[in-house]
Tryptophan synthase alpha chain
Amino acid sequence: MNRIAQAFAGGKAFIAFLTAGDPSLEKSCEYILEMERAGADLVEIGIPFSDPIAEGPVIQAANIRALAAHTDLRAVFKLVEMVREKSRIPLVFMTYINPVFKYGTDAFFAKCAEIGVDGVIIPDMPFEERRECAAAAVENGVSLISMIAPTSKGRIKAIAGAGDGFIYIVSSLGVTGTRGEIKTDLHEILEEVRSVTTVPAAVGFGINTPEQAVTIAGMADGVIVGSAVVKIIAEYGSEAGSHIYEYVKVMKEAIAKAD
């Protein structure tokens, strides 16, 4: 069983996100370890990018802070190496296609395998154009994680059928960011996904309260939280560790009620 599968093996998975290098590589490493200590089952690491089109203001600002701190792709690889010195928690990159192509697709996925990255999510890569990355991912044993959005109707089964690691279900139209209410018919999407694959399905975009997390976990195999964690980092900076721990602990305890 690989590490991503292990994240879902013990019940509902809590998946947390941060942007690498915000506010520094050392603090990103500390915060990932705090998330794990608080009960996170998997961590998504955002690779800073100048034009993160899927992100709302909170994560856009984190990208700007990380880039201002000179966090490039090689620095992000270094961060993973730092984490792997202390932890085996499943790690997944969230990146845009430009850094992958610039580094070289084959070289990028080979590096992911070498340092211990378990999966990669590329939100601006159309499903129909995933072949080149998919081949490199398979060759290196790295999961290329598919995203399904509310606009994916008619393509849900095709996208889910090619899914690996886990399926990322986007809860709402628009970009990332906390939301007071999630109105998408997630039951319908999840039914279609489960009709073609046994790969776990996790829901993200907008989830930020324990109540939302319990509701989502009652339907899905995992809950993804990004902007709420990044907000804590924006507020507390280099002193965010204990606050991240408390938030993740509360959220993990909440979704455990849905098991």
